[in-house]
Amino acid sequence: MALTGIFLMTFLIVHLAGNLQLLKNDGGKAFNQYAHFMGSNPLIQLVSKINLMLIFIHMVWAIILTKLNRNARGPVPYNTVSNESSQWSSRNMLILGMVILSFIIIHLRHFWVETHYGNISNVAYDGTVIPNLYSVIVYWFSKLWYVSFYVFCMFGLAFHIWHGFPSAFQTLGMNHNKYNCGISFIGKSMAIIMPSMFAFIPIMMYLRMISQ
Ligand code: HEM
Protein backbone atom coordinates (compact mmCIF):
# COMPACT_ATOMS: atom_id res chain seq x y z
CA MET A 1 0.00 0.00 0.00
CA ALA A 2 2.79 2.38 1.00
CA LEU A 3 4.94 1.83 -2.09
CA THR A 4 2.06 1.96 -4.56
CA GLY A 5 0.71 5.03 -2.71
CA ILE A 6 4.04 6.87 -3.02
CA PHE A 7 4.24 6.02 -6.74
CA LEU A 8 0.68 7.27 -7.26
CA MET A 9 1.55 10.52 -5.48
CA THR A 10 4.44 10.98 -7.92
CA PHE A 11 2.04 10.32 -10.80
CA LEU A 12 -0.35 12.95 -9.42
CA ILE A 13 2.41 15.59 -9.27
CA VAL A 14 3.33 14.97 -12.93
CA HIS A 15 -0.35 14.77 -13.94
CA LEU A 16 -1.10 18.07 -12.21
CA ALA A 17 1.89 19.79 -13.82
CA GLY A 18 0.64 18.67 -17.25
CA ASN A 19 -2.96 19.63 -16.59
CA LEU A 20 -1.93 23.12 -15.50
CA GLN A 21 -1.35 23.77 -19.22
CA LEU A 22 -5.15 23.92 -19.44
CA LEU A 23 -5.07 27.25 -17.61
CA LYS A 24 -3.15 28.93 -20.42
CA ASN A 25 -5.43 31.06 -22.50
CA ASP A 26 -4.14 29.68 -25.79
CA GLY A 27 -7.13 27.67 -27.05
CA GLY A 28 -5.58 24.44 -25.77
CA LYS A 29 -2.37 24.52 -27.83
CA ALA A 30 0.07 23.90 -24.94
CA PHE A 31 -2.13 21.19 -23.43
CA ASN A 32 -2.71 19.37 -26.74
CA GLN A 33 1.01 19.42 -27.53
CA TYR A 34 1.82 18.12 -24.04
CA ALA A 35 -0.85 15.36 -24.29
CA HIS A 36 0.42 14.38 -27.75
CA PHE A 37 3.99 14.12 -26.49
CA MET A 38 2.89 11.96 -23.53
CA GLY A 39 0.70 9.78 -25.74
CA SER A 40 3.34 9.13 -28.39
CA ASN A 41 6.33 8.44 -26.12
CA PRO A 42 6.74 4.63 -25.68
CA LEU A 43 8.49 4.97 -22.30
CA ILE A 44 5.69 7.16 -20.92
CA GLN A 45 3.13 4.71 -22.31
CA LEU A 46 4.87 1.89 -20.42
CA VAL A 47 4.84 3.92 -17.18
CA SER A 48 1.15 4.64 -17.86
CA LYS A 49 0.37 0.89 -17.98
CA ILE A 50 2.34 0.33 -14.75
CA ASN A 51 0.46 3.25 -13.21
CA LEU A 52 -2.95 1.75 -14.02
CA MET A 53 -1.79 -1.61 -12.65
CA LEU A 54 -0.57 0.01 -9.41
CA ILE A 55 -3.91 1.78 -8.94
CA PHE A 56 -5.56 -1.62 -9.19
CA ILE A 57 -3.10 -3.24 -6.73
CA HIS A 58 -3.46 -0.30 -4.30
CA MET A 59 -7.23 -0.68 -4.37
CA VAL A 60 -7.40 -4.49 -4.04
CA TRP A 61 -4.80 -4.43 -1.25
CA ALA A 62 -6.80 -1.77 0.61
CA ILE A 63 -9.90 -3.97 0.54
CA ILE A 64 -7.93 -7.05 1.70
CA LEU A 65 -6.25 -5.10 4.53
CA THR A 66 -9.53 -3.62 5.73
CA LYS A 67 -11.08 -7.09 5.80
CA LEU A 68 -8.09 -8.56 7.67
CA ASN A 69 -8.21 -5.70 10.22
CA ARG A 70 -11.92 -6.22 10.79
CA ASN A 71 -11.45 -9.98 11.24
CA ALA A 72 -8.57 -9.42 13.67
CA ARG A 73 -10.80 -7.22 15.80
CA GLY A 74 -13.26 -10.06 16.41
CA PRO A 75 -17.02 -9.63 16.82
CA VAL A 76 -16.83 -6.25 18.65
CA PRO A 77 -16.03 -3.47 16.15
CA TYR A 78 -13.98 -0.46 17.18
CA ASN A 79 -15.96 2.68 17.81
CA THR A 80 -15.61 4.36 14.45
CA VAL A 81 -17.92 7.25 15.35
CA SER A 82 -15.69 9.04 17.80
CA ASN A 83 -12.18 8.16 18.70
CA GLU A 84 -10.00 10.87 20.16
CA SER A 85 -6.75 9.08 19.38
CA SER A 86 -7.29 8.87 15.62
CA GLN A 87 -8.36 11.31 12.93
CA TRP A 88 -11.54 11.01 10.89
CA SER A 89 -9.51 10.52 7.70
CA SER A 90 -7.51 7.63 9.13
CA ARG A 91 -10.66 5.80 10.26
CA ASN A 92 -12.35 6.22 6.90
CA MET A 93 -9.56 5.54 4.42
CA LEU A 94 -11.63 2.87 2.64
CA ILE A 95 -14.64 5.20 2.19
CA LEU A 96 -12.35 7.98 0.96
CA GLY A 97 -10.70 5.46 -1.34
CA MET A 98 -14.16 4.55 -2.71
CA VAL A 99 -14.90 8.23 -3.49
CA ILE A 100 -11.58 8.41 -5.37
CA LEU A 101 -12.31 5.11 -7.11
CA SER A 102 -15.67 6.33 -8.41
CA PHE A 103 -13.90 9.49 -9.55
CA ILE A 104 -11.20 7.49 -11.34
CA ILE A 105 -13.73 5.21 -13.08
CA ILE A 106 -15.69 8.20 -14.43
CA HIS A 107 -12.50 10.14 -15.16
CA LEU A 108 -10.89 7.29 -17.11
CA ARG A 109 -14.10 6.62 -19.01
CA HIS A 110 -14.40 10.24 -20.16
CA PHE A 111 -10.74 11.13 -20.71
CA TRP A 112 -8.51 8.07 -20.90
CA VAL A 113 -10.87 5.84 -22.97
CA GLU A 114 -11.68 8.82 -25.18
CA THR A 115 -7.95 9.53 -25.71
CA HIS A 116 -7.06 5.95 -26.57
CA TYR A 117 -10.21 4.58 -28.21
CA GLY A 118 -12.40 7.61 -28.93
CA ASN A 119 -12.97 9.55 -32.08
CA ILE A 120 -11.31 12.85 -31.20
CA SER A 121 -11.16 15.59 -33.82
CA ASN A 122 -7.73 16.80 -34.96
CA VAL A 123 -6.16 20.21 -34.82
CA ALA A 124 -3.11 21.59 -36.69
CA TYR A 125 -0.33 23.60 -35.03
CA ASP A 126 2.46 24.90 -37.28
CA GLY A 127 1.66 22.23 -39.88
CA THR A 128 1.55 19.33 -37.38
CA VAL A 129 -1.81 17.61 -37.00
CA ILE A 130 -2.55 16.19 -33.53
CA PRO A 131 -5.69 15.11 -31.60
CA ASN A 132 -7.63 17.94 -29.98
CA LEU A 133 -7.95 16.42 -26.48
CA TYR A 134 -8.58 19.92 -25.16
CA SER A 135 -11.99 19.92 -26.88
CA VAL A 136 -13.01 16.80 -24.89
CA ILE A 137 -12.04 18.50 -21.63
CA VAL A 138 -13.85 21.70 -22.61
CA TYR A 139 -16.96 19.62 -23.33
CA TRP A 140 -17.03 18.10 -19.83
CA PHE A 141 -15.82 21.13 -17.87
CA SER A 142 -18.57 23.27 -19.39
CA LYS A 143 -21.10 21.33 -17.28
CA LEU A 144 -21.64 22.67 -13.76
CA TRP A 145 -22.63 19.30 -12.30
CA TYR A 146 -19.44 17.75 -13.67
CA VAL A 147 -17.24 20.49 -12.23
CA SER A 148 -19.06 20.16 -8.87
CA PHE A 149 -18.45 16.41 -8.91
CA TYR A 150 -14.73 17.00 -9.52
CA VAL A 151 -14.53 19.49 -6.68
CA PHE A 152 -16.37 17.13 -4.29
CA CYS A 153 -14.03 14.24 -5.18
CA MET A 154 -11.01 16.44 -4.56
CA PHE A 155 -12.08 16.74 -0.90
CA GLY A 156 -11.92 12.93 -0.79
CA LEU A 157 -8.46 13.02 -2.35
CA ALA A 158 -7.32 15.67 0.15
CA PHE A 159 -8.36 13.62 3.20
CA HIS A 160 -6.91 10.47 1.65
CA ILE A 161 -3.47 12.08 1.15
CA TRP A 162 -3.67 13.81 4.56
CA HIS A 163 -3.68 10.45 6.29
CA GLY A 164 -2.02 8.30 3.61
CA PHE A 165 1.21 10.29 3.19
CA PRO A 166 2.61 10.04 6.76
CA SER A 167 1.11 6.56 7.08
CA ALA A 168 3.13 5.34 4.06
CA PHE A 169 6.38 6.52 5.66
CA GLN A 170 5.42 4.86 8.93
CA THR A 171 4.70 1.56 7.13
CA LEU A 172 8.10 1.71 5.42
CA GLY A 173 9.75 2.22 8.84
CA MET A 174 10.93 5.66 7.76
CA ASN A 175 9.37 7.47 10.67
CA HIS A 176 11.74 8.96 13.19
CA ASN A 177 11.12 11.65 15.81
CA LYS A 178 13.64 13.83 13.99
CA TYR A 179 11.79 13.65 10.64
CA ASN A 180 8.15 13.05 11.63
CA CYS A 181 7.37 16.75 11.85
CA GLY A 182 8.77 17.39 8.34
CA ILE A 183 6.98 14.35 6.85
CA SER A 184 3.71 15.46 8.41
CA PHE A 185 4.20 19.02 7.11
CA ILE A 186 4.95 17.84 3.55
CA GLY A 187 1.97 15.41 3.66
CA LYS A 188 -0.45 18.06 4.88
CA SER A 189 0.82 20.62 2.39
CA MET A 190 0.42 18.13 -0.49
CA ALA A 191 -3.04 17.15 0.80
CA ILE A 192 -4.13 20.78 0.61
CA ILE A 193 -2.25 22.11 -2.43
CA MET A 194 -2.64 19.26 -4.95
CA PRO A 195 -6.42 18.61 -4.69
CA SER A 196 -7.02 22.40 -4.54
CA MET A 197 -5.14 22.87 -7.79
CA PHE A 198 -6.86 19.89 -9.40
CA ALA A 199 -10.20 21.47 -8.40
CA PHE A 200 -9.06 24.94 -9.49
CA ILE A 201 -8.56 23.80 -13.13
CA PRO A 202 -12.20 22.78 -13.89
CA ILE A 203 -13.53 25.76 -11.89
CA MET A 204 -11.40 28.20 -13.88
CA MET A 205 -12.24 26.54 -17.20
CA TYR A 206 -15.95 26.63 -16.37
CA LEU A 207 -15.81 30.31 -15.36
CA ARG A 208 -13.83 31.15 -18.48
CA MET A 209 -16.45 29.39 -20.66
CA ILE A 210 -19.53 31.01 -19.11
CA SER A 211 -17.94 34.45 -19.28
CA GLN A 212 -17.28 34.13 -23.04
C1 HEM B 1 -8.17 18.95 -13.55
C2 HEM B 1 -8.22 17.70 -13.29
C3 HEM B 1 -7.81 16.62 -14.26
C4 HEM B 1 -7.76 16.63 -15.63
C5 HEM B 1 -8.08 17.77 -16.59
C6 HEM B 1 -7.30 15.33 -16.05
C7 HEM B 1 -7.14 14.93 -17.37
C8 HEM B 1 -6.78 13.67 -17.78
C9 HEM B 1 -6.66 13.25 -19.16
C10 HEM B 1 -6.93 14.13 -20.37
C11 HEM B 1 -6.26 11.95 -19.16
C12 HEM B 1 -6.00 11.05 -20.40
C13 HEM B 1 -4.58 11.30 -20.83
C14 HEM B 1 -3.97 10.13 -21.53
O1 HEM B 1 -4.18 8.99 -21.14
O2 HEM B 1 -3.18 10.38 -22.46
C15 HEM B 1 -6.12 11.54 -17.78
C16 HEM B 1 -5.70 10.31 -17.37
C17 HEM B 1 -5.65 9.92 -16.05
N1 HEM B 1 -6.00 10.66 -14.95
FE1 HEM B 1 -6.52 12.59 -14.94
N2 HEM B 1 -7.06 14.57 -14.94
C18 HEM B 1 -7.38 15.32 -13.82
C19 HEM B 1 -7.31 14.91 -12.50
C20 HEM B 1 -6.99 13.63 -12.07
C21 HEM B 1 -6.97 13.20 -10.70
C22 HEM B 1 -7.28 14.09 -9.51
C23 HEM B 1 -6.62 11.88 -10.71
C24 HEM B 1 -6.46 10.92 -9.57
C25 HEM B 1 -7.02 11.02 -8.41
C26 HEM B 1 -6.42 11.49 -12.10
C27 HEM B 1 -6.08 10.23 -12.51
C28 HEM B 1 -5.84 9.87 -13.82
C29 HEM B 1 -5.34 8.56 -14.22
C30 HEM B 1 -5.00 7.41 -13.30
C31 HEM B 1 -5.21 8.60 -15.62
C32 HEM B 1 -4.70 7.49 -16.53
C33 HEM B 1 -3.23 7.77 -16.70
C34 HEM B 1 -2.50 6.70 -17.40
O3 HEM B 1 -2.64 6.59 -18.61
O4 HEM B 1 -1.77 5.98 -16.71
N3 HEM B 1 -6.65 12.58 -12.90
N4 HEM B 1 -6.45 12.61 -16.97
Can you characterise this structure?
- This protein is mainly α and 212 residues long.
- It has one domain: 3 helical TM bundles of succinate and fumarate reductases (Up-down Bundle), CATH 1.20.1300.
- The chain contains eight helices and two strands; from the N terminus they run αααααββααα.
- The chain has a two-stranded antiparallel ribbon.
- The N and C termini lie far apart (45 Å).
- Residues 12, 15, 19, 22, 35, 38-39, 48, 51-52, 55, 100, 104, 107-108, 111-112, 115, 133, 137, 157, 198, 201-202 line the site of protoporphyrin IX containing FE.
Q: Name the hetero compounds present.
A: protoporphyrin IX containing FE
Q: In the CATH hierarchy, what is the superfamily?
A: Fumarate reductase/succinate dehydrogenase, transmembrane subunit
Number of DSSP E strands: 2
Instruction: Note the beta-strand portion.
Output: under 5%
Sequence-ordered SSE layout with sheet pairings:
Elements lengths: L1 H18 L9 H12 L1 H32 L14 H4 L1 H25 L4 E4 L2 E4 L1 H9 L2 H28 L5 H34 L2
Antiparallel strand pairs: 1-2
Helix pairs in contact: 1-3, 1-7, 1-8, 5-6, 5-7, 7-8
Keywords summarizing the entry:
binds protoporphyrin IX containing FE, 76% helix, 212 residues, two-stranded antiparallel sheet, mainly alpha
Entry summary:
This protein is mainly alpha-helical and 212 residues long.
